[in-house]
Input
Amino acid sequence: LDGCGQLDTLGDTGPFAYVVLEGMEKDLAKCMNVLSGCIWKGTKLCIGEAKPNYRQWYALSFYLCIPPHAAL
Output
């Protein structure tokens, strides 16, 4: 679990967290479908795959010599 309690640029805690799950692809898809839209502690959950870290994505695109706009 990562991202809980991190401060954003305004100094507020972010309303999100990152969780790394490992398993078979169909099991993970079922897990995301079941949990997404559920109410947890009064808040509707939105579960989905995270975008890659910008720095990792940029380093990979630079390493592969792909123009940044072409990789989107």
